[in-house]
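[step 3/7] inverse_fold.run input=structure_tokens len=235
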């Protein structure tokens, strides 16, 4: 496993975990978009890292390419490519990429481990939901395991078997255990301003040298405030 190493130049607002000629791996804080949208062109991971790789030279052709995204409210590891071929390789190999998340949800789950599967679709209000109609939705699988229960909350480790928009949030909400602080799929009386969903680790094949790389982050302080002391095995 590769751990973060100090670097002289850090991009502002995000933590650089790894960088070489082909990829860049960062830890994104909650509240920051991965990339701008037509409706929101605020500062993003994409814009911050484009500035970073250009080293202050606006004429530089250096840029980063989005491989995958995290929701604005989700914290954790993001991998970006530094070339179009690297991006294409990683997206083509995405089914072989291991993605583990941590989440704190409301309540206690009757089944302490399992897989949630459904067809996910999106309505005109950009809200994702499960449908029984396979022609309208994309088949999605979320594997989960309960790690700890405390104070009416449960800490889950999640293995993302497919990578649909809002997948984890919708699956847990529809199971009756929404993520703490989720502004879109959470409880109406949830007053937490931070969402307890964190992309903890990622494992993938390097797009150029073919080596298998694994990155892992620590546990956010917010999770510890909710659950008390947390012990989670490393990758």
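[step 3/7] decode complete -> sequence:
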């Amino acid at each position: 496993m590769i751990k973060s190493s100090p670097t002289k130049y850090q991009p502002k607002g995000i933590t650089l975990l790894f960088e070489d000629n082909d990829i860049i791996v960062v830890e994104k804080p909650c509240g920051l978009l991965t990339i701008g949208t037509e409706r929101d062109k605020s500062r993003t991971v994409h814009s911050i890292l484009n500035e970073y790789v250009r080293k202050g030279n606006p004429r530089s052709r250096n840029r980063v390419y989005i491989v995958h995204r995290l929701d604005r409210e989700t914290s954790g590891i993001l991998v970006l490519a530094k070339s179009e071929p690297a991006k294409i390789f990683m997206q083509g190999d995405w089914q072989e990429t291991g993605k583990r998340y941590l989440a704190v949800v409301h309540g206690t789950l009757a089944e302490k481990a399992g897989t949630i599967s459904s067809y996910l679709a999106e309505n005109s209000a950009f809200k994702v939901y499960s449908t029984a109609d396979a022609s309208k939705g994309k088949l999605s699988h979320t594997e989960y395991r309960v790690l700890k229960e405390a104070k009416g909350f449960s800490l889950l480790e999640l293995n993302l078997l497919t990578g649909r928009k809002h997948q984890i949030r919708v699956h847990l909400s529809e199971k009756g255990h929404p993520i703490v602080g989720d502004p879109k799929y959470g409880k109406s009386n949830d007053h937490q301003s931070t969402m307890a969903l964190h992309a903890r680790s990622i494992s993938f094949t390097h797009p150029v040298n073919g080596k298998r790389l694994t990155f892992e982050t620590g546990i956010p302080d917010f999770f510890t405030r909710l659950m008390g002391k947390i012990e989670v095995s490393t990758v």
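[step 4/7] annotate
The first helix runs from residue 45 to 54.
The chain has one domain: 15-227.
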